[in-house]
Amino acid sequence: MPEPLDLSLLRSFVAVVECGSVLHASSRVGRSQSAVSMQMQRLEEEIGRPLFHRDGRTLRPNQAGEELLLHARRLLRLSNEALASLRRPEEAGLVRLGVPEDYAAFLLPPVLARFAQEHPLVDIELSCDPSPALLRHLEAGRLDLALVTRQPHQSFVVLRRERFVWAATPEHGAWLREPLPVALFVPGDIARRHAVEALQKADRAYRVVCSSPSLLGVLAAARAGLAVVGLVEASVPPGLTRLGEAEGLPPLPMFDLSLVSGPGEPSRLAARLRDFLLQELGREPAKDGPAMQEL
């Protein structure tokens, strides 16, 4: 019978693939760089095949590495689930999390992936809506937590700040047209309001060529060269260029992000996800207030 695969080797292997280098993977798994390098050598010896394309310090999985990656992730997930079911059986259930679509696209995927690794029995139901709608869902009890853009009149504690910028395809020069063609989210969205207010304050004539409830909708208009779009800077995709006052566009405000819970005491699992998000996204929990609570 062949020897079973060592889960510690697989855990380091997945970290190397996801981080792209032994150096960055070593900090994730809590081992020295040389120890992780030796683990990868040992794993390749056990498999009997090279697992990486090596380009200097950068490592990319080859075909054998990609195949092993699928099995490694599945084995590690099963191991985590088995341990959690025996050691923390109370950590099983559902948490309902709301987040605006642009934050869901760039901010949450790696954070939620790490939470799932640490809490494999917790299911997360993710709802994507504009911040005002998410707050209504919280008040109605349809969500446990929501990551929202804080408006000036709201007293929620600021978790982190994100820059709001203009973006467009460089080859079409949409920002040179008059009136300025813009792609905006639907009325009621905070990003739309800030973009319109900035244009009106600068007395810049504009026309709305795309109005969409979806991030994909406004991105499609921008990628086609039809319009300039206002986006959270970290969500600007490849192919779009950030624009500013040098291109004749008015400055946009920073966005304040807050993590908010609904009325009442959060469940054990919701509190666990809350604390994890606060730690990962950059702020310690704050004292809850009455009714809808700032975290």
TrEMBL record:
It comes from the Bacteria. One of its GO terms (molecular function) is DNA-binding transcription factor activity. InterPro entries: LTTR, LysR_HTH_N, LysR_subst-bd, WH-like_DNA-bd_sf, WH_DNA-bd_sf. It holds the Pfam family LysR_substrate. The keyword Glycoprotein does not apply. The keyword DNA-binding applies. Keywords: DNA-binding, Transcription, Transcription regulation. Residues 5-62 form the HTH lysR-type domain. Belongs to the LysR transcriptional regulatory family. This is Transcriptional regulator. It comes from Rubellimicrobium mesophilum DSM 19309.
